[in-house]
What we know:
- By secondary structure, the chain is an alpha/beta fold.
- The protein has one domain: Toll/interleukin-1 receptor homology (TIR) domain (Rossmann fold), CATH 3.40.50.
- Helices cover about 40% and strands about 10% of the residues.
- A five-stranded parallel beta sheet has the order 2-1-3-4-5, with helices on both faces.
Amino acid sequence: MNKLEPRVHFGMGELDAERNSSVFINCPFDEAYAIIFDSIIFATACCGFLPRCAIESGSTSVPRMDRITEAISASKYSIHDLSRCRGEGDKNLARFNMPLELGVCMAHKFGLNGVDCHDWLLLVPKGSEYIRYVSDMAGYDPKQYDLTPESAIPAVMSWLATRPDAVITSTPDEVIGVLPEFISKKDTLSKKWAGEPPWSDIVILAISIGQELGLIPVLSND
Length: 222
């Protein structure tokens, strides 16, 4: 019988989640957005950062907002996509989870206990009139993109590459070229888990593909 290996969780091994290298991703969870979500996950990993998310713990006994605030507090950086803040469906309802979580991150920007700070990136669709529905954001410079991986990846990577904790990274062209392999293997992983792959497995997959193809530097412990 093969010896069973313990699962890797956040804070262990490859997922040693230091706050300075953690990026909380705040975006829609729907099938239409999935390819953008995958792009942001992979681009974040290829920049040497650790993608974090509200679903990472799998703790259904803990209220979602508690899980979100815990992941945000454990991350120095965050990425927020407001592309779903518009009326949808028969009732013309907009989704405001993303602006809510952005507000939590903005509060963290001013420091936890006056010590730590938080930095964030705002993504909006090109031509978006986001100022009309969140006017308090006037004066900030969001990254505009056309809701494709080819535009999301450069927007994310150009921001992450300039953060104080960034390491040597690959280029957006290189990441875009390898993205289909990540998506294909992630789909295979999802099928094995009946559509509910653990977040840690997704992140490990992104890191391993990036390292195998030379997009992510393998840092020495020496």
